[in-house]
Amino acid sequence: MGNLTLRWLRVSGTGYHRLTPRFDDSEMRTWEEMLKESGMSSKEGFLTQAALSFEFFVEYVMRTDEEKKILLKGFHREWIKAIEENSRVAVVAPTGHGKSLVL
């Protein structure tokens, strides 16, 4: 049995997401893969950057339900900056623009 991991799953047709435990770690990326993709040379540096930059965390740690990299667009970066710089933020955007996935 693999390690217990928590994974965000979309509840079909509802627009809601939930954390679902799973025991299969066969799809998980290795440290080496994440370090290579991010251009970082150490786990400590990677973890520090992920803790300090939500944008870095989204780009190099988070994945879609299909285990694909999340490609941030300019408006996603604006949302992240607004959230980092303000105590309250309301994001209004059409369905399918990544509000639930990114934020």
Give the SSE map.
Elements: E1 5-10, E2 17-22, H1 31-38, H2 43-52, H3 54-60, H4 74-85, H5 99-102
Antiparallel strand pairs: 1-2
Protein described:
With 103 residues, this protein is an alpha+beta fold. It has one domain. 40% of the residues lie in helices and 12% in strands. It is built from five helices and two strands, in the order E-E-H-H-H-H-H. The protein has helices at residues 31-38, 43-52, 54-60, 74-85, 99-102; strands spanning 5-10, 17-22. Strands 1-2 form a two-stranded antiparallel sheet. A hairpin with a 6-residue loop joins strand 1 and strand 2. The N and C termini lie far apart (32 Å).
Notable features of this structure?
globular; 103 residues; two-stranded antiparallel sheet; 5 helices
Quick structural overview:
The protein is of the alpha+beta class and 103 residues long. Helices cover 40% and strands 12% of the residues. It is built from five helices and two strands, in the order E-E-H-H-H-H-H.
